[in-house]
Amino acid sequence: MKIAMIASEVVPFAKTGGLADVAGALPIALEDLGCEVVIIMPGYKCVKDISYSVVGKKIKVYFVENALYFNRDGLYMDKKGDYKDNLERFAFFCRKSLDLLKEINFSADILHLHDWQSSLVSVYLKNLYARQPFYSRMKSILTIHNIGYQGLFPGEDFPKLGLDKNLFNISGLEFYNRINLLKGGIIFSDLINTVSPTYALEIQEAKFGFGLEGLLKQRKKDLTGILNGLDYSIWDPGTDKFIARKFSKRNIEDKAYNKEELQRVCSLPVANEIPVLGIVSRLAEQKGFDILTESLPEICKTGAQLVILGTGNLKYHQILKKAAKKYPKTLSLNLKFDDPLAHKIYAGSDIFLMPSSYEPCGLGQIISLRYGTIPLVFKTGGLADTINEDNGFVFSSYTKDELVKAVKRSLAAFRDKKKWGSLIKNAMQCDFSWEASAKKYIQLYEKAKEK
Q1: Measured in whole angstroms, how far is the alpha carbon of residue 200 from the centre of its chain?
Q2: Continuous H helices in 189-254
Q3: Pick the CATH number of 249-431 from 1.20.1050.10, 2.40.50.140, 1.10.3720.10, 3.40.50.2000
Q4: Tens of pLDDT, residues 184-222
């Protein structure tokens, strides 16, 4: 099967979030399963070789060039906010991606699109390209990574898309007098998926659908959820170059050395019997920092230590700075991006806190499982699909009190050595490799071909 992966960011070339990880890892997993894959992305300033590159065994990565649109420091925005011409930038990218397929004579069975930035590919395919024999067999699948980002632009800019003006209506790309690119992708893609089965259900509800829940309900037969995989070549305590001592489920006792080092580098009292709670996150309300910051006084009185790594909303920076001053022997605050420290937190913590109010998939909880660090999560999206009482701790009412109760429950389990050993064993046996996810995507591609 021939797949064209069309995405606005791809690891290792450009990344702002999880979309790039998926667009970089999934093609390699698909290639290993016998698919022929090409990747198309914008030729940003950060991309060194602008013609094409190769990943996996022989997956060609093509970069759509336009110095006016893509030779900038940021992918979507600068310090002033979103680039004002993002509509034109990604409309150009989507049109050129389709043209490029013909140029390189890659007759794709499936165009796999990601989020609003490549949604217009399916709109153009069905409305401008479908009558051309080269494109007539192609089917499109749209993956929604986070429905909170939809690509909204002023309605008066619709002519810039080069589409029939009749497509700017309630049945097309119009959304409260604005253009909604993600809506266009949902309407015109043959199938739609998102990054966990629970999130696929959640986005059909008003609470999580961000105004598109009605449309998604209409298309629920064409909507599925496939969990993102994890690249275990990067996240594996048996090979991790950033941690104090490598370990696996066969020598789990060596995890203790990593805990000692984490306590030391974070200037916390070094003691194996003190439970360590770790957080690696964007500091934002969506990630649970509203209820977490309210809970801090109670959590800090439990006798546990808390290590936080990340940046985000300045409000939470200030609250956490005050708490770190108040509880210097309990709370280590690291307001930065630090990949080596992230690895140390996953390896050295006992419990990994991830109380997100919504989480399409989430990777932090999946990483922590591999490191024998037990996740504590709110029951939502991918967190609900990956964590249960056999491998972690789950609370299902999004309140400060329920979070504190879950933390206390996890600390009681930590003191029960038999129960804790069983949790670690179950956690480390979990397998969320890309191969399993890629097989499900191939089934989805087959379903699209039959439509």
Answers
A1: 14
A2: 197-202, 206-209, 213-218
A3: 3.40.50.2000
A4: 999 999 999 999 999 999 999 999 999 999 999 999 999
